[in-house]
Amino acid sequence: MVGENIETGIYNIKDALKVANDQALDLVEISPSANPPVCRVIDYQKFLYEQKKKQKEMKAKSAKIVVKEIRLGPQTDQHDFEFKLKHAIRFLQDGNKVKVDVFFKGRTIIYKEQGETQLLKFAEALLEYGKPEMMPKLEGKRMIMIIAPKK
Q1: Is the pTM higher than 0.85?
Q2: What is the structure's pLDDT at 115?
């Protein structure tokens, strides 16, 4: 048995419970696989509260990855292209990933090469801010490429 204001040592279960009750605390088994099992005398509610608090801090510190999506067409004009490029730059600077896709409507699927060139041109323009995570890939009527921000 271990704990604050307690002499560390091997105790009988009844004695350990009596010591915990005398201090108005709980006897908690820490490592049951040890020989003999290790118990600690603590305020269990306070212990649970501290654990939840630590988990909450860890969750808050973890980075949340957000994927922003930008759509282009196979024949997107230069001005629209630059407008969407500015948005992508802002997303990358904020630390978000950018998913760029070219959507082929109807018969525009015959312009796959144009769509791929659009995506590669987009990635080349963003090289300063991020690097392509995956190259253009055709999935159904969409050609998709993901760009991750540079650290």
Answers
A1: no
A2: 87
Domains of the chain: residue spans and CATH = 2-59 (3.10.20.80), 67-149 (3.30.110.10)
Dihedral sign from CA coordinates of 120, 123, 128, 134: negative
Tell me which H or E stretch contains 77: none
Do you find a cis peptide bond into 74, omega within 30 degrees of 0?
A: no
Q: What is the greatest pairwise CA distance in the chain?
A: 83
**What is the tens place of the pLDDT at every residue in 66-98?**
899 999 988 889 999 999 999 999 999 988 999
Token code pair at residue 3 = 């704990």
Sequence-distant (6+) residues with CB within 8 A of 40 are 1, 2, 3, 27, 28, 30
